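ok posting inputs for the nicotinamide-adenine-dinucleotide job
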Amino acid sequence: MIRYTDHVIAELRECIKLESYDKIFAITDENTFAFIYEFIGAIVPHEQVIMVSAGDQHKNLQTAEIIWGQLAKMRASRKSLVINIGGGMVTDLGGFCASTYMRGIDFINIPTTLLSMVDASVGGKTGVNFGHLKNYIGTFAEPIAVIIQPNILKALPQEELKNGWAEIIKHGIIAGGELWELVNKGMPKIADTAAWKHIIALNIELKSKVVKVDKKEAGLRKVLNLGHTVGHALETAFLKHNDYLGHGKAVAAGMVMESFIALEMGLLPEEDASSIESAIDAVFERLDLADYNMQALLADMKGDKKNHFGSINMALPRNIGAVQYDILVTDSVILNALALYGKNTHQPQA
Ligand SMILES: NC(=O)c1ccc[n+]([C@@H]2O[C@H](COP(=O)([O-])OP(=O)(O)OC[C@H]3O[C@@H](n4cnc5c(N)ncnc54)[C@H](O)[C@@H]3O)[C@@H](O)[C@H]2O)c1
Ligand SMILES: [Zn+2]
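and the output
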């Protein structure tokens, strides 16, 4: 259940009033801890707020163990509730911990980044990274509610907004129509809460529609991997260099490279490829991959949990509004696209 509101506390009270939870816990990171009074007020006792270190490098089993430990120590039971307040890191990690603690207890997501509003907190995937392997350990588990307060984006750093915008561009390519038109108008002004709410709702609608048909990614859901085969390999490569690349930036670069791949394979008309490129280049600078070994990137793509037997399958755009999944792509086409990405640099508009 998705709820949009200007007052999280009121909405939260509404969500929990029909249930009889014995205890309510909240999970935040260092940055989203600041929201606890605004978001959960007196609903969660201070000692039942579990704060974890911020950053994707902490989305791992060690942090999960700390959370499970805290829940056990404070005697959380099957009738307890966990409220995740944060970006995708917190909603993935908190959802994972809640869905495994005592074989699964209820949780609510209160996403605080654009990326988690339009993507991570909906669709039922939870999980943690396992060493360098992104999201290798996880569950499919639905929150009982996702509460979205769009004006919280006002507090979000520009870089984080851009991370979410990449997923919005992805959804725009998949959906076409009104969402793609909005993508081409660029990011709304930060104070324009109504515009953000509208765009967030269109994104969630698209993602929910896809997930409803195919929750466990046996088919259609794979379209949501657009930009992610290359994007995840980039994230892995940056982690190996002890560097951090935001998920959205990785996906933005991934979508550019994957549209080059689709173009080269004759799957995507040139005008659609350049329209995708422009929408992305308007917001994202090209990554500098000079220090990265392209063969190693290719190996990381083969290691992606979505690929089998050393072949690389991708979801690729066929048109704006049509993405096809399970397309087998050869190494040489990928290497050409990676090379083209570095050469084909547009200036960001602002
Ligand atoms: N489950 C899914 O379907 C799914 C989909 C997409 C992404 N993800 C996951 O989501 C994660 C990325 O999520 P993210 O981009 O939200 O990152 P994040 O949760 O790490 O948040 C980014 C940074 O912003 C801070 N922050 C959060 N809200 C803030 C606010 N309102 N104001 C100021 N700072 C704030 C955080 O503390 C953090 O430092 C990745 O782990 C990715 O794998 C999951
Ligand atoms: Zn993503």
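notes: The mean pLDDT is 93. The CA atoms of residues 89 and 258 lie 25 Å apart.
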